[in-house]
Amino acid sequence: MSLNQVLKLPRYQVAFRHKALSESERSQEAVAAWLRVGETKARKADCSSFNASRLKESLSDLRAMTRKDPELFSAPLKNTLAQAGVALVACPHFPKTKAHGATFFLTPEKAVLMVTLRYKWSDIFWFSLFHEIGHILLHGTKAVILEGSENNNKEEEADAFARDCMIAPKLWDEFVGSRHFDHKSITGFAKKVGIAPGIVVGRMQHEKHLEQNQGNDLRTRYIFSK
After folding, report:
1. In this model, does residue 165 exceed pLDDT 50?
2. What percent of the chain is helix, strand and coil (3-state, nearest 5)?
């Protein structure tokens, strides 16, 4: 299938309408090529039929994987999602795609979740993963959802899903309300809620509780391997 044919597929049209990003920042051809790689790999993936309830039930297991090294969680992560009917496709970032991830359904029975390691920080990877799961559970099967498309409300909903799924709002409010942020308190909180300390640091930086250079010793980087 050519890129011109991919550009014309109905399910991809949402991904090619850019209001948040200009054409100079994101290329339709690059997005088409990236999505085509994901589709090709997903067709070969062995998955059970899509089951939203099973995907929801797996969320606690996925959270626990954030505390493991990639060589320990890679296979279980892929298998857990496959059992819920989601083909996980890790694909290198393509220039001018400006994407951490995307979701779409190849068929009503197989969802595709594409992730890239664009910035390599592990907390960004996991937030992106839960964000894309949010799209799958909240926004149905009709079209590709790609970051930076015109679906601003859907992006906000997926962000909230990822944020609250990884850390319960009440626990987060109690933690940041204490205003006591040091290595011990951050690692202790992360252990209490069952996620990697780097995820806590990444969110604290995002919400301006920490400066961008604070706490980075608790964050880790992943290296994409083919």
Report:
1. yes
2. 55, 10, 35
Bridge partners, residue 221, by sequence: 121
Side-chain half-sphere exposure of 89, counting CA atoms within 13 A: 28
Q: Looking at this protein, which amino acid is placed at residue 142? A: K
Q: Any residues with CB less than 8 A from the CB of 59 and at least 6 apart, and which?
A: 130, 133, 165
Percent of the chain with pLDDT over 70: 82
CB atoms within 10 A of CB 46: 7
The answer to whether 36 and 16 are in contact (CB under 8 A) is: no
- Tell me how far the alpha carbon of residue 129 is from its chain's centroid: 2
Residue 13: partners with Cβ closer than 8 Å, 6 or more residues away: 143
Residue 175 half-sphere exposure toward CB, CA atoms < 13 A: 23
Residue 62 and residue 126: Cα distance in Å, rounded? 9
Q: Is 115 helix (H, G, I), strand (E, B) or coil?
A: strand
pLDDT digits (tens, 9 = 90+) for 178-208: 888 999 999 999 999 999 999 999 999 999 9
More reliable by pLDDT, 41 or 15: 41
Write the DSSP symbol of residue 179.
-
**Hey, what long-range contacts does 6-10 have (CB within 8 A, 24 or more apart)?**
6/32, 6/33, 6/35, 6/36, 7/32, 10/143
